[in-house]
């Protein structure tokens, strides 16, 4: 379980995250949406131990984020990939496992690349792949690391809509199969609803969780869900809250 207790992150002149309490169960898929600058990335970074809270505490199964990170239990996927340019896709996928002193599994890495739609590109370097393809390598890398908790910050931001949908379906599939805990930040409301068990809507200035939506959609989810009435209704509900909090944020 991820426990966020009274977490505040203040920078010089802004309170990016203000007194946030949050519980995320093991195996849960949580998405976070909110206007630009409302503190999504900061909250995610605080959960991952990349940002030290000014006040409050984060625990991952009772451990500090730093301890969880040192044992390879946390996997990060950011909007812009952080791949090593001189390594092939497969080598990039296995690299973090090696760094965490876990045995790299080449064949599993190659299979994962196929799962994210990169069959045939196993030996290709990042400079010869598109932004979206490199993003898929980063996702495969985080999964291959064997992290229990995946912290993802707009990982599909650079992708076209069809690829996003497809990758969303495979991410849900991998999440179900491997029982990961996922915290996923996105600007896309449909994506946030499609992926989530729970969708958090944040508002900014100061950054807080405005509302929590329990998402009620069939599992497993495939592309047909995207056309269902239940899906559209929940997207509309999240969008309404987002618009309301945005207006409140603008007018004080
Ligand atoms: N390292 C930093 N130093 C100073 N201010 C920061 C820093 N990081 C973030 N901020 C500020 O904290 C606030 C929240 O930023 P954050 O990046 O968490 O927002 P976000 O919700 O992820 O936005 P976006 O959707 O645009 O990615 C913003 O006002 C931002 O300017
Ligand atoms: Mg951000």
Report on this structure.
Helix content is 38%, strand content 23%. The protein is an alpha/beta fold and 252 residues long. Strand 6, helix 6 (161-178) and strand 7 (181-185) form a beta-alpha-beta unit. Helix 3 runs parallel beside helix 5 and helix 7 (189-195) packs across helix 8. It is globular and about 50 Å long. The chain starts with a strand and ends with a helix. The mean pLDDT is 91. Adenosine-5'-triphosphate binds at residues 11, 14, 16, 34, 36-42.
| CATH 4th-level superfamily of the largest domain | P-loop containing nucleotide triphosphate hydrolases
Show unreliable segments.
none
Structural class: alpha/beta
Shape: globular
Question: What topology emerges from the helices and strands here?
Answer:
Blueprint: E1 2-10, E2 15-24, E3 29-33, H1 40-47, E4 55-60, H2 65-70, E5 74-77, H3 89-99, H4 106-115, H5 131-144, E6 149-153, H6 161-178, E7 181-185, H7 189-195, E8 198-203, E9 208-214, H8 229-251
Parallel strand pairs: 3-7, 3-8, 5-6, 6-7
Antiparallel strand pairs: 1-2, 1-4, 8-9
Adenosine-5'-triphosphate (ATP) binds at residues 11, 14, 16, 34, 36-42.
Brief summary:
The chain is of the alpha/beta class and 252 residues long. It has eight helices and nine strands.
State the main characteristics.
9 strands; Rossmann fold; binds magnesium ion; 2 domains; 3-stranded antiparallel sheet; binds adenosine-5'-triphosphate; alpha/beta; 6-stranded mixed sheet; 252 residues
């Amino acid at each position: 379980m991820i426990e966020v207790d009274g977490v505040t992150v203040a920078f010089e002149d802004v309170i990016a995250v203000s007194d946030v309490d949050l519980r995320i169960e093991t195996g849960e898929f949580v998405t976070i949406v909110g206007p630009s600058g409302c503190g999504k990335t900061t909250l995610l970074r605080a959960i991952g131990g990349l940002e030290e809270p000014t006040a409050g505490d984060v625990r991952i199964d009772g451990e500090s984020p730093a301890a969880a990170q040192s044992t390879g239990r946390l996997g990060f996927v950011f909007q812009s990939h952080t791949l090593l340019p001189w390594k092939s896709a497969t080598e990039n996928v296995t690299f973090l496992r090696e760094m965490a002193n876990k045995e790299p599994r080449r064949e599993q890495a190659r299979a994962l690349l196929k799962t994210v739609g990169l069959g045939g590109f196993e030996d290709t370097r990042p400079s010869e792949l598109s932004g979206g393809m490199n993003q898929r390598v980063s996702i495969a890398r985080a999964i291959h690391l064997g992290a229990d908790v995946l912290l993802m910050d707009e990982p599909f931001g650079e992708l076209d809509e069809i690829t996003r949908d497809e990758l969303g379906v495979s991410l849900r599939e991998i999440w179900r199969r491997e029982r990961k805990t996922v915290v996923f930040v996105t600007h896309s409301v449909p994506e946030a609803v499609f992926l989530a068990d729970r969708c958090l809507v944040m508002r900014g200035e100061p950054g807080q969780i405005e509302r929590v939506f329990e998402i009620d959609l069939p599992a497993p989810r495939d592309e047909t869900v995207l056309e269902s009435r239940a899906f559209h209704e929940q997207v509309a509900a999240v969008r309404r809250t987002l618009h309301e909090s945005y207006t409140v944020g603008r007018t004080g």
